[in-house]
Amino acid sequence: MADQAFVTLATNDNYAKGAMVLGRSLRNHKTSKKLVALIGPHVSEQSRAVLHMIYDEVRLVDVLDSGDMAHLAMMKRPDLGVTFTKLHCWTLTHYSKCVFMDADTLVVSNIDELFDREELSAAPDPGWPDCFNSGVFVFHPSNETYGKLLQHCTEHGSFDGGDQGALNSFFSDWATADIRKRLPFIYNMSSIAIYTYLPAFKQYGANAKVVHFLGNTKPWSYTYDPKQRVVRGDIQEASTHPGFLLEWWTLYSSCVVPMLQKEYGEQPFHSGCEELPQCEQAQPLISSEERKQRWEQGQADYMGVDSFDNIEKKLAAFLK
Hints:
Elements: E1 4-10, H1 13-28, E2 34-39, H2 45-54, E3 57-60, H3 69-76, H4 81-87, E4 97-101, E5 105-107, E6 121-124, E7 132-139, H5 143-156, H6 163-170, E8 189-190, H7 191-196, H8 198-204, E9 210-212, E10 223-225, E11 230-232, H9 242-264, H10 288-296, H11 308-319
Parallel strand pairs: 1-2, 1-4, 2-3, 8-9
Antiparallel strand pairs: 4-7, 5-9, 6-7, 10-11
GO molecular function, one term: metal ion binding
Enzyme class: transferase
Keywords: Cytoplasm, Glycogen biosynthesis, Glycoprotein, Manganese, Metal-binding, Nucleus, Phosphoprotein, Transferase
């Protein structure tokens, strides 16, 4: 429907890359909905141009300099700047219903059925399942709701310092009021769950529709060799399953990088795509299927990437 849209937010060029991949993944899986990108003032002109090629609407939002209610709220709670920026999605009142998706998510199957859900529908957070993860949620744009959210944030803040704490505080009955608003985890499968409950991932992971690259290390933090189809970086810091990381880079290098190259022209820019020579030090991330087979055959790399120390480091990094 023309009055329904997927919405994302990019505050800088790195997150703009994520938004580009997210938009392309939605297009590749034949969504019938509009695509909207909210961007911050630090997104470059070149990135904005590429976003305009992928998204139906690209809207600049800046709570620090705006003259709306958010600006008044900022004067009382400047610590919630990022949260207030995300809340701008409720001002998209020319749409009747939207699905917000963080720029570090990747769609691996058509998810238009999410528009059958009501506000506020979301998947449980793996760290505290009685809270929802705000990386994917269904909402109804409304200036009235937007004003109430700003007032709530100004008065109560956020218990985690970000939008997730604020939204869970505002929609406080999510876990108890209506089971229909609890989205299946496959609509927001976060990386931490893969390593904390591997048997469940082996059982249900193939049904995943949205992958969320949680943690400080994002897909664009790595480099990629398109010829060898190898993702390079510190494997111990990998924030999600290698197969999904490879899928993100394949889409980025094939669909997004050519558009960025055209916009930058002769100007240098860091695409992250490299053709590095093979060497013994390079440790390519194995594919999802290869790693699954090794686990099932009892051949987990207990001294390497699958060691207890490495898994403990991932958990520690996430909890921080």
